[in-house]
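Notebook p. 47: complex prediction with flavin-adenine dinucleotide.
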Amino acid sequence: MKPAYDVIVIGGGPAGSMAARYAAGRGASVALFEKDREVGVPVRCAEGVSHAGLAAVVENIPSRWIAQKITGAVLHAPSGAEVPLHTDQIGYILHRKIFDYDLAQMAAAAGVAIFTRAHVTGLIMEQGRTAGVVVDHLGERRRIEARLVIAADGVESRAARWAGLATRTALADMESCAQATIGGYQGDPEMLHFYFSRSMAPGGYLWIFPKGNGMANVGLGISASAGGERSPHDYLEAFLARFFPGASILGRVCGGVPCSNTLKELAADGLMVVGDAAHQANPLTGGGIVTGMIAGRIAGETAAEAVAAGRSDRETLRRYPKAWLAGEGGKQAQFYRLRKFVFSLGDEDYDALARSVLRIPVEKRTILSIMKSALLHKPSLLLDAVKLFT
Ligand SMILES: Cc1cc2nc3c(=O)[nH]c(=O)nc-3n(C[C@H](O)[C@H](O)[C@H](O)COP(=O)(O)OP(=O)(O)OC[C@H]3O[C@@H](n4cnc5c(N)ncnc54)[C@H](O)[C@@H]3O)c2cc1C
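Predicted complex, structure tokens below:
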């Protein structure tokens, strides 16, 4: 480990590996610090991505990343009604462990020095500007200087807060998740399932993502403010007992996803924040793999340019939030409003919606037509929606 780098990236998830790779690819000397023993482990994810999303951020999608191809989805209402969706989009359930490893390896190939068991415990601050990190690596504490630090430290992020950015997530916007990977899954392996119900997953939804080879990720996210006395684990147990009694459980994870608008400030003097740490997951779905990679790429390129220009002040780093908002980030606010709308519905609303959507021919049954149906068939929803969308 050198005493100084141009850029230090904190966190070896998809956002951090992309940021590091693109900064190094444009000539910066870059170190990436990951606190865990291995990049990508433990996997706290249902591992779903769309083909279009992934293809937008990687040149080639290697087959070893893909556990299962997905060609369709079914929405389930509280009454038990099933609403198959029309989609011409393909998706994948990834092998996230392999995927995260490969993204880190691509960064290494671009020249990034990667260190695992390297826990960043603080920032070096000089006159209000981030100038490096304090890192515990293999039992030794070091101070490593940097012209720029990129905080990609995920949902548990503290680095951006240390640099003075406002990073608080309202409890209602934090999705608390629990997931089990089950064996012996006998459903259609190419079909995703989503369950919407206040009583089964308040402020969120349940999912079944088939992982191929008879496995499936079965999980849920609930709003941290809506669960009451019951934990996500309790809700998951109830779901498993009802739909998969006696299923073999191959693994369990829990975790959280901030599902709010992107942070107001994504850069401070000497620091940028990306991925879950910057609240860049889609607030409606909680999907943050691709959005984090998009942001990571922009932040990495911005970092390299800033280093080349010999500047790392907040003004110079504005290229990153500007480019984020001009692209993927520009949709965040709309998805956030949709989130509030969808998760404000009660079980009767979901059932009424399912009934009206089932009248739409399946080939016309898209997310947009469902939203339209929600507004047209239930005037009280229309009122709610008007409040939310204006
Ligand atoms: C149950 C669950 C299911 C999900 N399902 C999906 C899905 O199907 N599709 C999807 O797109 N998204 C999904 N997500 C969200 C997705 O996992 C995240 O959005 C994505 O991993 C964010 O990437 P990231 O690089 O920002 O953060 P992470 O992948 O969380 O990486 C952050 C890294 O930083 C490291 N780190 C943290 N602090 C420090 C420190 N101080 N020093 C050094 N290293 C540190 C962590 O160990 C971690 O490796 C799911 C999340 C959960 C919890």
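Notes: The chain has a mean pLDDT of 93. The chain has two domains: 4-44+97-169+260-326, 69-93+170-259+332-390.
Next step: compare against the earlier run before touching the bench.
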